Amino acid sequence: MSNLKENKKNNIIENALKLFAQKGFYNTTIPDIAKAMKMSVGNMYNYFASKEELAKFAIKYSTNILADELREVNNMEISSKEKIYIFVRKYLENVQKSPEVIEYFLRVYLSNREVFKQGCEGFLCVGEFVTEVMILLDDGAQKKEFREQEFFPAFGMIMGSLGGFAFLSGENVLDKDLLSYSDAVADNIYRALKYDE
Amino acid sequence: MNEKKPTVVWFSAITCNGNTHSLLSSNSSKFELFLKNFDFIYHGSLTIDKSLEDIIKNQEQIDFLLVEGAISSNQKFFTTSNDSTKNILEKLVQKSKYLIAVGSCASFGGIHAKFTQNDDVCGLKDAIEEENKKKLKHPIINLSGCPVHPEWIFQTLFSLKNFKEISLDDEGRPKELYGTLAHHGCTRNEYFEWKIEGNFGQKEGCLFYNQGCRAPMTHSSCNKILWNDINSKTRAGMPCIGCTEVDFPRNNMLETKKNMGIPLEVPLGISKRAYLSISGVAKTFKIDRLHKKLME
After folding, report:
1. Is the ipTM of this complex over 0.95?
2. What is the rounded average pLDDT for all residues in chain B?
3. Helical segments of chain B, H only
4. Which CATH superfamily is B7-176 part of?
5. pLDDT at A1
6. Matching CATH number, B180-296, of 4.10.480.10, 3.40.50.300, 3.30.70.80, 3.90.76.10
7. Chain B interface residues (partner A, CB cutoff 8 A)
């Protein structure tokens, strides 16, 4: 695919993400997205065959942003504790900068499972991000910086904590600036994972 | 066929004789073929009219010296024929053209090298003086395995008899026999592909995920040259324990070492990140056929 077409696709995804996050999957129509793009509805279909397809691309696109950031952190020559702190900060910065990405995850991906039933089974559309969390946890456990436990409880603890915090931010119930909580959230995650003698 | 048959001497050093058992369990027609083509002049466990002393004193050259078991110079630890295995080996090597380590103990020291009471137990390569190694016609050949497959011994001997040399990998093992992994030819490969776990002793499922199977990182032809012509460990439901590799035996060989549920080691030649990524995708698919018993 040419770069131009690729850029256009990403542009559509970004606009769709915002609309899906605001109005929900079913209340957002292809004409709504086309309107936001200042494109004709017909032209939209040159890029995505259906709204469902667009939704699947959108979840890949948004989690890959997080995967890229976490991969960068994973490749740093620092302790697992520091990795957690940096990753949490980057995650919350993302929530602040592009709240629609997390909103989309919470409001569409987690709530409208039927849309993702085919083609996004299991970790198929979020695989890159899950792999990076695996690398983070595996590396920490190998270095005995994290205690040994099964993958899913550890994964759920990290993502539950981050997702929950993003939700609080989206609901505007936090007293202070989102990023001022970063170290405290990271500390909770690290304490839950850390190796105990 | 008046040509003189090459002589074969089998020296048993520090060993459980597992490789001897393996040799004697070989396919009988192959064993006959071996005896027809080679002059098997000495084996300590077989009825043969020569003693080890006769062999050492005899002026005659040994074409193929096969050594089973690890080597030590410590006579308090182990002696045979009133001498250390290292001394006997040095004497035999000086008369030999080809030196073949039969089994993992002779190749790399094996289980005996794990004894903490004696730290000079080793495989042939480390036991022999450099100048004596130079007298050999060929670099030392390691036929690792616990035990080694009898056919690997025959194939190596016939190749050397006919072609005088054999191509070896970095560990001194014949590439022809150790160039591929035990995983090749495993009848459970489809379970491996779709990440379906199996249990010890059962026909279904892959033994890599929980049972410690090392087939995807072990150089061996166990699943191509079958044992007793019909079977292999993995076919019978026993995980590969990596017995042809330098680090054998390891601890907890029937367990897959994991961190946070993620395998510590992944198949040879793939990065952990890539492996985890494709595993996650493969696990997504539930193939009913592979979750059923093969025979109800």
Report:
1. no
2. 95
3. 18-24, 28-37, 52-57, 85-93, 104-108, 124-127, 130-135, 150-163, 175-178, 189-193, 233-236, 272-284, 288-291
4. NADH:ubiquinone oxidoreductase-like, 20kDa subunit (3.40.50.700)
5. 65
6. 4.10.480.10
7. 259-262, 264, 272-273, 276-277, 280-281, 283-285
